[in-house]
Amino acid sequence: MSEMKKIKNLKEFSTSADRFEGANLLCPGCAHSIIVREVLNATNDDLVLASSTGCLEVCTAVYPYTSWDASWIHIGFENSSTAVAGAEAMYNALKTKGRLKQPDRTPKFVAFGGDGSSYDIGFQWISGCMERNHNMMYIVLDNEVYANTGGQRSSSTPIGASATTSPAGTISYGEQKNKKDMLGIMGAHNIPYAAQVSPNKWKDMVKKIQKGFATEGAVFINAVSPCTTEWKFDPKDTMHLADLSTDSLVFPLYEIIEGHELNITYRPKNIVPVEEYLAAQGRFKHLFKDQYKHVISEWQTRVDENWEYLQRREAARV
Amino acid sequence: MAKQGWDEFEIGSLLRSFDGKIDKCPAHTPQRDRSYSENNSHVASVADWRLIKPVYNKDYCIDCQFCWVYCPDVSIISRDKKMIGIDMDHCKGCGICVEVCPTNPKSLLMFPEQADEETELASWPTKDEEEE
C-alpha cells in the first residue's frame, strides 16, 4: 500500500499538481469540476477513471482534446461502474499472475456518474458492483436533473422542482415525486463505506475520499453539485448554493460504514430554513406563489424528519 | 492529429495527454514541468467565453487558497502555498473566486473584460466597515 497523502490544511492542499485540466467545456461556475479536482487532488497515486455519459464526460473529452491527465475511459450512459470494476478485476488478475510491470504502484479505481446515470439508468450496474464488492469508488455528481440533455427530470429531482419534463404551471407545481434516497439504498448493500459530500466542505470531502481510498472494497460517494444552468442561479453563487444546501440540511453530510455505523460529519451551527435554499434557485420560483406555498412547509417538515431520523440512526448504530 | 476529419476518429483510440514517455504519475509533476501533447485541453483556451474578468490585488491577499480550491477551471496559479496569479487562458469569468475571497476589501474583484488592470488596481475599494 502506498502512503496516504498528508493534507492538514488548505495551503498544503494547494501544492497538489492538478490532474484535471482547464479549457474543458463545462459551464462557467459548474460544481462538477470543483468536485473532480477535490477528489483527484486527494491522492498522489495513479488513477484509473471512467465517466458515464453526462455533462462531465461530454465536456472533458471534446475531440481532439482531453482534460484528464490520468487513464480515463469514455463509456456508455449506464456502465462507468462496471468498466472500472472490469479494470480492477484485470489488475487483480495480472497481479496474481505476476505480470504487472510496476507492481509497487497501487492505482485507485474511480468511476464518475451524474445523477441520471446513477439514480436511473446505471442503477443495476452500480448495485452489482457494490454487491460484488470490487475495490473501487463510485462518485455521483448529483445535480438533480439531466443537465446535459436539456434539463429533464431524473429520479433525483426533488418535489416542486420545475424541470423540462415536469414543468410548473397553473395546475402543477412541477416534479411530484420525492428524491430517491440513494445513499440509504447503497448503505443497505452493506458496503464498507458510503458517504455524502459537498464541494464547499473541502476538508470533510477530502477526508472521506481518502478514507474511501484506504478502504478495501466498494465505496459509494454522493456529491452535491449545484447546477448553475438548471437550478437557475448566477454562476458566481455556486459555493453559496452549496453552503445553503448543507446548512439547511437538505443535503446532510454523513457516512455509513458497513451498512450500520452511521456518523453525521457536519452539524451546522445555524440551521438555515429550507425556504432560503429554495428562494435562491429559479427552479423553485413558482413555489412562492400563494397557490403552492404548502409545498415549502411540507418540505421543511420532511427535512426535519430526515435529520431526526439520521440522528436516531447515529445513536442506535443501526 | 489535427489533419483528420471529425469522423476519422477510430473506436478505442487514445487521446494522449502528454508527449513523450511518462514514467511517473503526473501527480508528482507540477503543471509547469509537464510536456503537454496537442490533445490536452490545457493547450486550448476558453478566454473568449469571458465577459467579466477577475483582477488580482496582491496587497490584500492572505494566501488562504480558497480561490484555488473552489476554482472550477484550474485557473488560480498557486506555487509553494502562495497565490501568484490567474491563468487567463482558462478562466471563464464565473466569479466564484471573488465570492469566496475572505479579505476585506477583497483581493479579487470582477471587472469588464475590456477594463484596464492598472487603472482598476489604482482605484481599488478600501475597507468596507459595514459589510460584516
List the helices and strands and how they pair.
The complex is a heterodimer of chains A (318) and B (132).
Chain A: H1 10-13, H2 31-40, E1 47-51, H3 55-60, E2 71-74, H4 80-97, E3 108-114, H5 115-121, H6 123-132, E4 137-142, H7 182-187, E5 193-197, H8 202-214, E6 219-224, H9 238-247, E7 254-257, E8 261-264, H10 274-279, H11 293-316
Parallel strand pairs in A: 1-2, 1-3, 3-4, 4-6, 5-6
Antiparallel strand pairs in A: 5-7, 7-8
Chain B: E1 52-56, H1 66-70, E2 76-79, E3 82-86, H2 96-100, E4 108-112, H3 117-122
Which features does this protein show?
heterodimer; A: 318 residues; alpha/beta; Rossmann fold; 11 helices; 36% helix; 13% strand; B: 132 residues; alpha+beta; Alpha-Beta Plaits; two-stranded antiparallel ribbon; 3 helices; elongated
Describe this structure in words.
- The complex is a heterodimer of chains A (318) and B (132).
- Chain A has 11 helices and 8 strands.
- With 318 residues, chain A is an alpha/beta fold.
- Chain A has a single domain, classed as Thiamin diphosphate (ThDP)-binding fold, Pyr/PP domains (Rossmann fold).
- An 8-stranded mixed sheet of chain A has the order 2-1-3-4-6-5-7-8, sandwiched between helices.
- The mean pLDDT of chain A is 94.
- With 132 residues, chain B is α+β, with helices and mostly antiparallel strands.
- Chain B has 2 domains: 15-43, no CATH class; 45-122, Alpha-Beta Plaits (2-Layer Sandwich), CATH 3.30.70.
- Chain B contains 3 helices and 4 strands; from the N terminus they run E-H-E-E-H-E-H.
- In chain B, a hairpin with a 2-residue loop joins strand 2 and strand 3.
- The N and C termini of chain B lie far apart (54 Å).
- Chains A and B meet through helix 1, helix 2 and helix 9 of A and helix 1 and helix 2 of B.
